[in-house]
Amino acid sequence: MFRSAVCRINTVVKGITIQSAARPLTASQRCMSKHSTETDQEFDQRYETFFNRPDIDGWEIRKAMNDLCGMDLVPEPKIINAALKACRRVSDFALAVRFLEAVKDRCGAKVKEIYPYILQEIRPTLDELGINTPEELGYDKPELALQSVYEM
Amino acid sequence: MVVPNMASRLLMSSLRHLQKIPKAGMSSGHSKIGGREVVGYGFNGQPNYVDRIDFPLPAIRFKENTPDIQALREKEKGDWRKLSLEEKKALYRASFCQTFAEMKAPTGEWKSVVGLSLIFISLSVWVYMGMKLFVYRPLPDSFTDEAKEAQLRRMIDLRVNPIDGLTSKWDYEQGKWK
To answer: How far apart are the first and last CA of chain A?
Structure first.
């Protein structure tokens, strides 16, 4: 029993030493740093090119939009333009309107300053694609009431 | 040798069981969504629909693909400028349940919360009054004004805390407060 235990430990130790010897060669970059070195311009560029990909699908659009909505920022108008055009390519009208709503919500307390600016910047795209703003659809105010699931 | 072998076998069988769990969860999730189209990644990896402000695009559409919605989707592939406002709203409601304005609309629940809190606070005051009237004994004699004065007099006589406390404020020569 002792011998088998020693054999096992031996193989485990050997595996560890081989791994640690191999590590400097394979892993040249540590993917665990918290600090991002990406500038704001690079960030905007990254999302714009992502949305501009010609073969983008609905999953990827939703993923990027959800990510943007989870961050502490309001997306730049050029990102929104690219996102709306991506929605057009996958033919999902609801997605475009929902994203506009989400962007408006991201403006937070400064919605009166930021949102008109964004609308002014994306107006050509809206007109080109035939997308309505949430206000034009009447979604700036609650339209339908939802019955509570506890009272059904 | 028998015991470790058995232990490792147990470990392996439990691990095998663990690997099966996500698959089972996935299949049950799919069976619950009916004919609704999976269009994205859910906030917890499951195909579910929740209206969330921090995750506005849920994994599945809100409505099933009925024939009239299917017809709308065909029309959606054409020029969006030719869609009427009603069709656009129908498309939105086919994908999503509530708009942001509806999600954030006040429910008025705070009124019942405040009202119930006040009711319970007043109830507890009544309970306290009942206890005071029918349960508790009267306060002891030491709470009367004479007893409290006598206590103070005695503390002054004992020179309690003479440097920066009670009797430091007492003038012993004139017999009154400084």
So the answer is: 66
- The reply to whether A123 falls in a domain is yes
A93 neighbors B91 (Cβ within 8 angstroms): yes
Domain-embedded: residue A15 = no
If one counts the domains in chain A, the total is 1
Q: CA of B43 to nearest chain A CA: how many angstroms apart?
A: 9
| A122 closest CA partner among A103, A94, A149 | A103
pLDDT per residue as tens digits for the range B10-21: 666 666 655 554
Look at residue B33 in the predicted model and tell me its pLDDT. Answer: 86
- Per residue in B101-156, pLDDT tens? 999 999 899 999 999 999 999 999 999 999 999 999 999 999 999 999 999 999 99
Among A65, A93, A95, A105, the strongest candidate for a mutation testing the B interface, having the largest count of B CBs within 10 A, is A93
Does residue A11 belong to any structural domain of this protein? Answer: no
> Domain with A108 in it: what CATH number?
1.25.40.40
Question: What ipTM does the predicted assembly reach?
Answer: 0.73
